[in-house]
Amino acid sequence: MTAPETLVHELRQPLTAILSNAQAAHRMLAAGSPDLREVREILSDIIACDKRAAGVLGRLEDMLKTAAPKTPFGHGE
Amino acid sequence: MKKPAGTLFIVDDDAQVRRSLSRLLRGCGYLTRTFASAPDFLAEHDPAVPGCLILDLAMPGMGGLELQEALATSSYRRPIIFLTGRGDISKSVHAMKSGAVNFLTKPVDIPDLTAAVEEALEIDAAERAAWLERHGAAERFATLTPRERQVLRHVVSGKINKQIAADLGTAEKTIKVHRSRVMRKMHAGSLVELVKLASLAGIPGSNAQQHR
C-alpha cells in the first residue's frame, strides 16, 4: 500500500530533526554555560526521532521481505 | 556579526523538523517563526516584514511549489530556500526557474543552511529596497484625485502648463494649483523626481517621453 518513496520521505524527516537538534546542542555546549533544561529537551527529541526512524526502517524491511522473499542473496543463482 | 536583519519563516508539516530547525537557527542568532502548513503561512504573511522562507517542498495539501506560486502573484516575492529529498530534481529546476534562492537536501548540514540563509537575507534586503520604493510611489499615486492624475500624466510627458490647460480645457492658473498639489502628494521635490516616481508607480508613458 505504501510506496517505498513515501517511506524514504518519512525517514528523511526524523533524520533532519536529529541532525539539526544535535548541531543545536553542539553549538550551545560550545558557547559555554548552556541551558541544561533545553539540552535535556533536545536529547529527548533526538531519542524520539531515532525511535520514529527505526519504526519506518522496520516497515521498509517488511516491504523488502514481501517484495523479494526467495532471493535473499541477490539474483543469478 | 553583520547579519542583515530578517525573520526566517520555517514552513514544514513535521513538528520535529520545525522545532529542530528553529532551535538551530535561533542558536545561530536568527529570529524564526514556524508554520505547520502553507495556508497557515499565507494567512499571516506580511510582505513588509524583512526575511526569507525555509520551505518544505513535499507537504500534504498545498505544497512548497504552490506556495511559491501564490507568493509570486502577491505584491512581494519573498526569497525562498527549499528543503527537499534527493529525488525531486525536476521540481527543483522548476522552483529555481521561478526564483527560488536555493535548494537543500534533507537532512541539511548547518554550514549549507546558514550560507543559504545569508544569501537569501541579502537578496531580500536588496529587493525589499526596490519594492518599498515602488510600493511607496504607488501608494502616493493612489491618493491623487482623477483630475490630479490627468495633470500628472501630462506633466511627466513633458508638457508645460499652458499646453496642459489647453488640452484639458481649463485655465493655466488652475493647472498650476493642481500641479503643486501633485508635487506635494507625490513627495516630489522637482520635475525629475516626479518623473521617476511616476515611472516607479507604473504610470504609462512616464518613461518613454522624458527625453523629448
Low-confidence stretches of chain A: none
What is the terminal separation of chain A in angstroms?
30 Å
Globular, elongated, flat, extended or rod-shaped: what is the shape of chain B?
elongated
**Rounded Rg of chain B:** 23 Å
CATH superfamily of the largest domain in chain B: Response regulator
Shape of chain A: elongated
Report how far apart the termini of chain B are: 49 Å
Rg over CA atoms of chain A: 18 Å
Main sheet of chain B? Answer: 5 strands, parallel
Number of structurally distinct domains of chain A: 1
Q: List the total number of helices of chain A.
A: 2
Number of helices of chain B: 9
Largest contact between chains:
A-B, 22 and 19 residues
Mean pLDDT of chain B: 88
- How many β strands of chain A by DSSP? 0
**Number of discrete domains of chain B:** 2
Strand content of chain B: 5-15%
The CATH architecture of the largest domain in chain B would be 3-Layer(aba) Sandwich
Oligomeric state of the chains in view:
heterodimer
Strand order of the largest sheet of chain B: 2-1-3-4-5
Total strand segments of chain B: 5
List the helices and strands and how they pair.
The complex is a heterodimer of chains A (77) and B (212).
Chain A: H1 4-31, H2 36-67
Helix pairs in contact in A: 1-2
Chain B: E1 7-11, H1 15-27, E2 31-35, H2 38-44, E3 51-56, H3 64-72, E4 80-84, H4 89-97, E5 102-105, H5 110-142, H6 146-156, H7 161-168, H8 172-185, H9 191-200
Parallel strand pairs in B: 1-2, 1-3, 3-4, 4-5
Helix pairs in contact in B: 6-8, 6-9, 7-8
